[in-house]
Amino acid sequence: MKSSANQSWTVLAAVSVMICISMALPIYGGSVANTYMVVALGWKRESLGLLTAGNMAANALFAPLTAMAVGRFGARKSMIAGSAIVGLAGVALATAVTSPWQALIAFGLMIGGGGGLAAIIPCQTVVAAWFDRRRTMALSIMYAGQGLGGFLAVFLINGAITISGTWKSGWWVFAAAGVLGVVVATLFVRDAPASASASARPAMPPGAENAGPAEVQDVTLKASLRSPFLWAVYLSMLTLMAGSGFIVAHSQVHLRGLGFSPSSAASAISLLSVAMVIGNIGFGALAGRVGHKAAFISAVTLYCAGLILLTQVHNDLTLWAFAIVAGTGFGAGQVGAMALLSHYWSMRVFPALTALGLVVQTAGGGMVPVLAGAYFDAHGTYVPVMWTLIAANVVSVMFLLIIAAPRAQRTAAVSPSTPLSDPGL
User: Fold this and answer.
1) What is the sign of the dihedral through the CA atoms of 336, 337, 343 and 349?
2) What is the pLDDT of residues 149-176, one digit of tens each?
3) Out of 163, 186, 262, 296, which could bridge 336 as a Cys pair, Cβ 3.0 to 4.6 Å?
């Protein structure tokens, strides 16, 4: 029989696979597959934005339903259902889609909503249940899996399309991934350790093991929402997502327009997703040296530098520089936003603050791909859009610098006299 420590590693590995299928594949693999499909079928660039925005909007709007499903049926069953929906959508896109509105339903609604059922909310719930003291490390590993999954997704989809000569092959990869997700969730994901009980010590939020009991605010949700610093974090999450939405939806056609081949353009997304792993893992180390707030500001600043490099791409060297810098900054910011919320607020309000942050960043950032596509169709360039995104990130950094973080309050959420239940790491 496996020890609980070994089982925690198995569950973390399974959750990392699920985050690849539910997030990395739609974001990075979807970027490649959608670009090939839109170009092959002669659709407008605005269609690329609509597909990405529809996916992001469905993911955000389904978040409350996902939370309810996880609470009622468990994270494992939510992941199984979400993976099945992603697989069915892949089949539909490969066999039946011929118009933008059909693609919007399949990729936007089905993969967006289905992917959400198997993505952040259930995956973080499982990590929270299995990892107590080293949860930030576990979350970093989980998000790093997303970065590696993005690299693999781009490689598989671009390779399948290149070998077969048809964009439909890319969507068959989605169908196969959906089947894989159902199998992995069924066999390896468990909602909580068998020893867990309702009377067990309340779980620490991600990052609290670094912060210490005195650095986590135990205040009401209403009081938390009055914090200017919280909204500064939300603004940064929004600007990060806005830039990401643009990169996912339009960077490849932008790069093709600069003379790069389809394979080179796709490789930039692949390299960006690998660089995200550096940011995912590196944030924890940086936060331990300079503090969570300074580390997050550094991440957003680095991401902003990556966007600036995107405006200057003209050869392979600058292409790689953009992908590495932007990917590292986004990966660090991705983990950093969640770590910041948990560093200054207790687990009592952390889930609600996380859900609200996801809605803000996804709903707001989801508009950018549509607007960027419409602007390109009207003016034939993305450059003003990119500089607007750069300016927005600069503003978010300024707010983080100016606004003070909440004052620390001691919380009873972590009791040193209670036995620890962390099974590993």
Assistant:
1) negative
2) 877 888 899 899 999 999 999 999 999 9
3) 296
